[in-house]
């Protein structure tokens, strides 16, 4: 029989709990140790590494390869649209939720899709290395699209696996270890790939990345399938239209339309101050007198480790206090850290101001990451975690990216200082919605 719609549960965002009554979880340091001490924390480290590795290889690093191959800036910019697959992954996520993948079904609903995506990713990177942009442009771009599709699918399944395999109170810790792996993957897909390309060749660099991408696939084979998969697999498979309609209908039915819209608005607004700076940060560094080597060292190396420290702090905060208080702390930290950029404009070319700004900004962003991931993880039903979480992630990234696209015009109209103040104040609507949600996401529920 098809799964019957579930009646609303109080509090609504805990409807994904695997048992109707969850025992009280340990708080404070006992809760921290319990959350970080699960085997899944190590598994998520390797899976995070796998998700971070290809992101720059089909974006930033690829653009450098194309430029060195003689491509003009216009076509390179158009190629970057391929990475929109990472934003649109909710489009095919319902199919990943609805059924197991043929031939890989013995691994389970989550690990089967994940392992297949990882194999496709390894093959895509190896094929990109073998073909190269100079041999056949159409073939090479198809390989880039296949690799980006595999990377986006891997992201979707890792998020679903994380939500399904552990209770809500452990999500902050899993997000922290995932972030550590993800940032190391970014370093490999960015700096390491460029070093290898410089000393040997682009082919050697991308073949090496294909080899590193196989490591998370081994971790997937050794991981355990979430218990919820057996329950879902025992249910009748939904038809194609049902597979798309059920996840979205379930979210609104469970929460009610008013609360559901408020939750989606909160998720969409939360990362605005952070993402609005994404486009103009690099030009701002140049305009304040720093060269490429200084930017790479402070922003891409030092800043990565500060972000990792912030992620673990965020994971600890969620494990020790639940989600609500860290949500407020993270919101203020991310917004106020944007004001540090004004300090850089007052003291241009001063390395201490650059280091201080990157320290505050990256720590705040890192802290906010596990907090908002843990919050969004509590919004999904584990029957549809791939679809619902993919939609939430896309919603969380889209508004900031849209405003970021016109950020250059805003800077020209207001100056950098005016723009940084505006980005800081953009947190106000988020706090208003959070104030309305405060009691509705509390109630002493686990993880809140």
List the helices and strands and how they pair.
Elements: H1 28-36, H2 39-57, H3 60-68, H4 73-79, H5 93-98, H6 109-131, H7 137-165, H8 171-199, H9 202-222, H10 228-233, H11 240-255, H12 257-270, H13 272-275, H14 281-287, H15 292-321, H16 324-337, H17 340-346, H18 351-377, H19 385-404, H20 407-425, H21 428-437
Helix pairs in contact: 1-15, 2-7, 2-8, 2-9, 6-7, 6-9, 7-19, 8-9, 8-15, 8-18, 11-12, 12-19, 12-21, 15-16, 15-18, 16-18, 17-18
Tell me the number of helical segments per DSSP (H or I, 4 or more residues long). Answer: 21
Report the CATH superfamily of the largest domain. Answer: MFS general substrate transporter like domains
Q: Based on CA inertia axes, which overall geometry fits?
A: globular
Most strands sheet: none
The helix-and-strand class reads mainly alpha
CATH topology of the largest domain: Growth Hormone, Chain: A
Q: Please tally the β strands and state the result.
A: 0
Instruction: Indicate the radius of gyration in whole angstroms.
Output: 22 Å
First and last CA, distance: 34 Å
The helix fraction, in percent, is over 70%
Q: Low-confidence runs (pLDDT<50, min 5 residues)? A: 1-24, 443-448
Order of helices and strands: HHHHHHHHHHHHHHHHHHHHH
Q: State the domain count.
A: 2
């Amino acid at each position: 029989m098809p799964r019957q719609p579930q009646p609303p549960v109080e509090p609504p965002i805990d409807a994904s709990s695997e048992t109707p009554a969850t025992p009280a979880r340990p708080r404070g340091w006992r809760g921290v140790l319990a959350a970080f001490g699960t085997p899944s924390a190590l598994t998520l480290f390797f899976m995070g590494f796998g998700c971070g590795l290809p992101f720059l290889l089909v974006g930033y690093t690829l653009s450098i390869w194309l430029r060195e191959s003689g491509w003009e800036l216009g076509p390179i910019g158009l190629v970057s649209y391929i990475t929109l697959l990472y934003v649109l992954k909710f489009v095919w996520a319902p199919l990943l939720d609805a059924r197991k993948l043929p031939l890989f079904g013995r691994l389970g609903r989550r690990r089967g899709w994940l392992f297949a995506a990882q194999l496709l990713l390894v093959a895509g990177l190896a094929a990109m290395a073998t073909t190269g942009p100079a041999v056949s442009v159409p073939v090479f771009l198809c390989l880039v699209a296949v690799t980006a599709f595999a990377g986006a699918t891997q992201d979707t399944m890792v998020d679903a696996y994380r939500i399904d395999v552990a209770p809500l109170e452990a999500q902050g810790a899993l997000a922290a270890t995932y972030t550590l792996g993800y940032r190391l993957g970014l370093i490999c897909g960015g700096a390491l790939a460029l070093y290898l390309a410089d000393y040997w060749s682009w082919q050697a660099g991308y073949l090496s990345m294909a080899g590193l991408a196989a490591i998370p696939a081994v971790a997937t084979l050794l991981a355990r399938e979430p218990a919820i998969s057996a329950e879902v697999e025992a249910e009748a498979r939904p038809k194609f239209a049902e597979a798309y309609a059920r996840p979205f209908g379930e979210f609104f039915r469970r929460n009610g339309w008013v609360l559901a819209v408020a939750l989606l608005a909160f998720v969409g607004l939360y990362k605005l101050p952070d993402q609005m700076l994404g486009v103009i940060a690099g030009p701002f560094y140049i305009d304040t007198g720093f060269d490429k080597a200084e930017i790479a060292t402070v922003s891409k190396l030092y800043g990565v480790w500060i972000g990792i420290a912030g992620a673990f702090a965020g994971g600890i905060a969620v494990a020790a206090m639940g989600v609500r208080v860290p949500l407020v702390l993270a919101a203020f930290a991310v917004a106020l850290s944007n004001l540090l950029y004004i300090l850089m404009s007052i003291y241009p070319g001063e390395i201490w101001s650059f280091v201080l700004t990157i320290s505050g900004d990256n720590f705040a962003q890192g802290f906010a990451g596990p907090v908002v991931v843990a919050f969004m993880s509590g919004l999904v039903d584990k029957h549809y975690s791939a679809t619902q979480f993919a939609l939430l992630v896309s919603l969380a990234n889209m508004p900031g990216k849209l405003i970021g696209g016109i950020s250059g015009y805003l800077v020209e109209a207001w100056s950098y200082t005016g723009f940084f103040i505006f980005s800081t104040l953009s947190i106000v609507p988020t706090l208003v919605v959070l104030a309305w949600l405060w009691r509705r996401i509390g109630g002493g529920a686990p993880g809140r």
